Amino acid sequence: MPKRIMTFIISLMLLFSSLIPVYAKDKSADDLQFATEMERAHGEKDESADSNTAKNDGKVIIIDINRTSLENFENIKILREKLDKEGYIGLMNIRGDKGYDDRRNYATMGSTGRADIRSDIPMKFSHSSKDNASAYKSATGLEPGEINLENINSMDLYNQTKGEYKSKVGYLGDTLISNDKKIAVLGNSDYYDDEGKALNNRDFCLSVMDSKGRIYGGNIDDINKKNSNFPYGISTDYKKLEKETDKYYKESDLLFVNLGDTFRLDEYKENLNEKTYKKMKFSIYNEVSNYIEYVMNMAGPNDTVYIMSSFPSKLDYANNRRLAPIVRFDMSDKTKGILQSSTTRRDGVLANMDIGVDVLNRFGLKNKEMVGRKLISKPMGNNIEFLLKDYKKIVAVSSIRMEIINIYVTFISISWLIAAIALWQKHRIPTKYRKNTLSVLKELVKFGLIMPLAFLTAPIFNPTSGVQISIVIVAVSLIYYLLARKLFKNDDIMQIGFFSILMILIITIDSAISTPLMQSNIMSYDPMIGARYYGVGNEYEGVTIGSAILGFAVLVERKKIPKWLTAVLLAIILFISAYPGMGANVGGAISECIAYLAFVLLIYDVKIDFKKAIMILVVTALLVIAFAGADIMLGMESHLGNFVEQIRINGPMEVVYVFGRKIAMNVQLAQTTIWVNILLVGLVILAITIFRPNKSFSLIKEEHGTIYNGFLATIVGCLVTLLVNDSGIIAAATDSIYLLIPILIILINKGVKDKIC
Which has fewest Cβ within 10 Å: 69, 270, 341, 693? Predict the structure, then answer.
């Protein structure tokens, strides 16, 4: 029976793995329709928009003081004074498609999703002189705007053929223009390279251009002046900028202003000493403050003003401070607080994809192809203090997470290998040392189960630095170890069952209360990476499968709970960890459902043949459909609901493309992530303990039948999660921990008693 199950699952995996890449391969230039050949995106009215700007035809102004931080905002006089009384603040994830830079970030703000824009070619935004307009029309066959991106087709060609998400650029601009809204841009971040060559930098236009690379108003050329006291000997001409702002404010609905001096200061910083840097910084911030004050006085009561730093400074980026501040002022609202988004479900953290969607919402519009979410205002009196404190923890976790994970994976991999080799060659260990050697190795192996539990619970103690996080993890790990030894002395099976049940209990409770622990521990997701912001992460998805099956297998075998209760509890765990408003892991819903159903059938001695396997797949499909329906009807806007919406818009092939990306991601992870070491070590251990011709594994089946069934279900979970998760390698690795550690401990105990040869 187990052979049939494994053969069926592996066959399905091989079939899908071989077919999906064929249909999900990157688009070629021959298949692509240029952006300039596509119809303009129209969007639609958003009846839920309830801001004064939307209700009363107000205007929107965006001011970008690039390469600054939230702390810098408090050094700008007008912002410090305004933020003390009003405004809603957030920290923005800046990740584009396949990387981080200003250009990808700007393009992503106005696109359907993350955009991949080449950083090694110039973005040729220019005003429509006779020659420029002619060049644009010749290249695109379209009438130019006042400002045009001449190389829009080559830029979009790269994005559509090389980008992972195939996002469509210019959808913010398209939607606004289609609904009779006018857009204007002012400013630039022009500077000089090391050889003194002038470099045009108007990348901010990527955010608000239409999909054809056009903007119909503004000044990006004649806005600077010579100024020897500023970086590169140039500065924004603020008097002229004020006049242009007044002009284009009257003529447009959305005005995007790029104050390039802060960008130039960051690029020029390496040429300055501390004294001259501070002097320039003070001068620039003084001019910026005066300009923002001018805009605030000019804006009407129904307007919305965004002030943001679209990208952090080079120093902040190098120090892993990779979230950018943004403030939204509703000019009629004199309260203050933080910004929220359904994209992240985390107070004060939002995504760059949300900016374009929120701007549309300010005009009472929406475009369903844009995957971001509108921003929600949450009143909070100590908003800046809260954000700075939370950001400090985010940075601390992000900075140390890979170091600790590397230590953890290395430790358990080495301890497993040594334990497996010691078991294999135990007859070579002197008799008087054999028992102690194997016993010490057994205790070390247990920490593979303990440390993920410590990682998850460490945030309860609120550590705020890398050192504090490390100390808490070590201390909590020792407490769990000693507690298990105290409660279940000399009973290793109950100890591993204790660690597993405690783990799945904490994961379930945490998921039910919106995953505060999952969001803040070093083995979970990172808001600066932005692969996931909420729910059960892929690392703990594997843990959820393995710990639940192992824990309940131990309890059933020891007759601590009846089988029917196991089935009920697993159903509850599945619901909470997969429900869009809680655990919200689609791949997890599929993997857990198949693994849990297999386990329940096995403990009830139900033969799993082809028909039963099909039944399991059907039940799993129905579960996913039910959760998708709940997501859409209740408006929870989770990953699953967004996935269904993209299928509705782009057609059934979206499923194929998504699974293709998942497989491609797993192939990449297999070459880069340290988690793959666990799977490799696991193969070695299984080769030594199972496929080697001895009675080891058959004795485990005879003496621990229920746990053995748990092993089979866990293997199924590993295989399925490899297929359906974009980080399936990682989830399968953490799942296999709950397979390999019990095997080693059981075999070590048998080796100590000398019952197997």
Answer: 693
